[in-house]
Amino acid sequence: MIDTHELKKRDLYLNKIIAFQDTEPVKVVTGIRRCGKSSLLKLMVAHLKENGITDEQIVEINFESHAFKNMNSDTFYEYVKEQVIPNKRMYMFFDEVQRVPNWEDAINSFRVDFNCDIYVTGSNAYMLSSEYATYLSGRCVEIKMLPLSFKEFLYFHDFEIRETKSALGGMRKQVFDKNGENYDIKDVFDAYMRFGGMPGIADIGLDQEKALVLLEGIYSTVIMRDILERENRRGQKRITDAILLKKIVMFLADNIGSNISVSSIGNILVNEGLLEDQKRKGKPSVHTVQAYVNALLESYFFYDIKRFNIKGKEYLRTLGKYYIVDIGLRNYLLGFRNRDNGHALENVVFFELLRRGYDVSIGKVDNTEVDFIAIKPDEKIYIQVTETMTGEEVRRRELAPLQKINDNYEKIVLSMNTGMDSSYDGIKSINIIEWLIA
To answer: Mind listing the domains of the chain with CATH numbers?
Structure first.
């Protein structure tokens, strides 16, 4: 029996799943380990029960349980078949389904043989998200999960935002915990920028030592199990060097938001002497580095973003950027110290735009760059991210690329300190925290 009181709602994702309820495709929930995929399935089960679906209509299997360790596709099929009630709509939830050899044979048979609605999660230790469509004959829909947004972080840590009157008569936002203690919202945002958005942090509290243990567990599982083991399981020997993999992880984490080419990664690692102990002749090939980077993207540890020439209206093949899925993981890798705050803020904005359903690219205008172009079918926003807008020189630098774009779409600069003006020639200056909680 599920105790829904312990489950925090993730409405953004739950609503996406509900939108596909009782449609033919298999619903596949993907995302980095420990970002909340299993909990999302439980939330969906709770939603069904609240809406009149009986316990008997729900089949749940978590293949990480020892009870199902030796299942194959035949025993999987028979086990589920025994639970199917004739002439009833069945709802099937399979967590870590790829642990079952030839699992897709069973899933495809359920769809043919039973009146059912199927939901699965999977880890990248066994399969890449790009392969689901192949295994399920194209009949699947992917729900991509991310760690907690700042808004979700507040909710998971039992913080509540209230508006209070300031001494000057205006309104200001303050954060209250469940004991009624109040905090400045910037202090809570600093905690988010330090600990990140992995849901497990909420269970242990904002304690640095405990957070490090949790983040180390996620990192080592993704790197050792999801990437290195998966390659071995498939008999592919492209990614065998754990040391090189870690060097590339560290390099990408240290250079989030910077323009990087894959060939430059190998060059820099050699030039900095990071590969000298590798008993290599020369540097790793571009193909090798590309394979390692691809593995990190496929495990959802990093996300890449392409550049778009705004005036030429085309994507550019040169120099993309990489962002790390969780800022807490970056701090675990590089140390909890103030570093490169501008790029860290950019990282947070990038993932918030993805959560909000935008297609995101970097904008190139002549020889300048716009941090993000965020596009939906009926909307386009140009966004610059900077730590502060108080200095004249910074303002000029951040506004210049936006001023070169002569269309009528919204243009925004997001910063921690917006300066005195709320807009410059129609370009809005918005506090990044206000934007995140809007």
So the answer is: 4-144 (3.40.50.300), 150-206 (no CATH), 340-438 (3.40.1350.10)
